[in-house]
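quick q for whoever's on today - can somebody do inverse folding on this one?? i tried earlier but teh output was garbage lol. tokens:
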């Protein structure tokens, strides 16, 4: 059987600071290799520091890394415009298909220049004659004229689009696109372990007894730095106070994104902790995710009784462990994720609604009172969601074979 060269773009091996990126990549690997065993996978990265993580992914998964400067893409645009495709990088020329997985692609949540950057990247692959696939991700809304124009010009030429939820699918169909597939996030294919989680607690000097209850908090600095929703920090403080006052659960603050001078969930966690009275701080532990492997990171929710999540992949990790998260997010991607488990009433969309501390407090108290029912609902839907995640590779196979 001949080899099939798959080029993945839009993800990072770790240099981006977003732990969700490698979780998605590992899930994609499982889905693609399940359906396309003869696939050879190369990751294109714009982060030079990804070379530090290269050996793990090449040795364990056989995923090759190609780091490219963004200035190189400008040259590539000129080459394809002049019809000089042979001047493109060799790894692009040798690829049989290109798979984009940015997480959130064309959207009004992105700036014009961010959407334009995506378009310029994608147009190179399209003009080079490469099938372009948008792997499971969120897109839309497309209310801005520029977003709608760039999205339609690219997506109309895509060989396959896989939406990550029904809201994204509806946005794409309203754009005039058809045959949109629907799958779950690739990270649902990873396997969390209770044993791994307890070993993490022991390694960090935390109580690993089965009698000790934990709740995970995963904050999101983007909500403050990008969307200027400063009330979000007050809401997290209030939630920590309520849990400390009304439950016996200890609190683990688990950041997922640390990017120096830009997005730093660890810094936000420390700011929140330091602003609380000492009687609360004794119940709260902050875990630096840089000391955890991906397997350890996704396993921690398995020993928790509840989860308050603002990072998308932290929501996925909680759900994948059978734990229903109360989610404080931005945009529809969180809503459509929880819709797969019929618990979308436990999402606070910081962009789609006005945040009321009083209303949010009532939602948390209702969540704490209904934990068992919500967890059962998640567990009853989890198998179907995992199957949806796996099926993405099948749709890719149908295009390339």
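ok took a stab at it. sequence:
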């Amino acid at each position: 059987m001949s080899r099939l060269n798959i080029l993945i773009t839009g993800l990072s091996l770790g240099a981006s600071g977003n732990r969700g990126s490698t979780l998605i990549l590992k899930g994609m690997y499982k889905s693609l290799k399940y359906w396309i065993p003869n696939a050879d996978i190369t990751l294109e990265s714009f982060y030079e520091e990804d070379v530090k993580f290269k050996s793990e992914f090449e040795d364990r998964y056989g995923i090759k890394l190609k780091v490219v400067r963004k200035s190189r893409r400008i040259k590539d645009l000129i080459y394809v415009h002049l019809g000089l495709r042979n001047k493109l990088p060799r790894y692009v020329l040798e690829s049989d298909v290109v798979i984009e997985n940015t997480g959130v692609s064309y959207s009004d949540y992105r700036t014009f220049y961010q959407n334009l950057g995506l378009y310029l990247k994608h147009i190179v692959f399209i003009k080079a004659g490469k099938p372009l696939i948008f792997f499971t991700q969120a897109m839309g809304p497309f209310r801005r004229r520029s977003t709608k124009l760039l999205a339609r010009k690219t997506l109309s030429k895509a060989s396959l689009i896989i939406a990550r939820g029904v809201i994204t699918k509806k946005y794409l169909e309203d754009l005039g696109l058809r045959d949109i597939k629907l799958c779950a996030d690739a990270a649902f294919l990873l396997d969390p372990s209770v044993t791994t989680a307890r070993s993490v607690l022991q390694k960090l000097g935390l109580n690993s007894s089965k009698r000790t209850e934990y709740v995970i908090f995963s904050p999101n600095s983007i909500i403050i730095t990008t969307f200027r929703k400063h009330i979000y920090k007050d809401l997290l403080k209030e939630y920590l106070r309520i849990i400390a006052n009304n439950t016996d659960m200890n609190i683990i603050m688990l950041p997922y994104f640390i990017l120096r001078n830009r997005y730093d969930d660890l810094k936000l966690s420390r700011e929140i902790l330091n602003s609380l009275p000492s009687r609360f701080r004794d119940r709260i532990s902050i875990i630096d995710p840089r000391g955890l492997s991906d397997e350890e990171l996704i396993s921690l929710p398995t020993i928790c009784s509840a989860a308050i999540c603002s990072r998308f992949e932290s929501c996925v990790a909680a759900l994948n462990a059978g734990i229903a998260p109360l989610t404080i997010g931005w945009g529809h991607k969180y809503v459509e994720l929880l819709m797969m488990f019929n618990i979308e009433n436990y999402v606070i969309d910081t962009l789609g609604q006005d945040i009321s501390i009083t209303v949010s407090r009532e939602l948390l108290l209702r969540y704490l009172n209904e934990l068992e029912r919500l967890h059962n609902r998640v567990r009853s839907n989890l198998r179907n969601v995992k199957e949806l995640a796996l099926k993405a590779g099948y749709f890719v196979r149908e295009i390339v074979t």
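fwiw Residues 371-400 form the longest helix (30 residues). also Residues 190-382 form a domain with the Rossmann fold fold (CATH 3.40.50.2000). so keep that in mind when u check it
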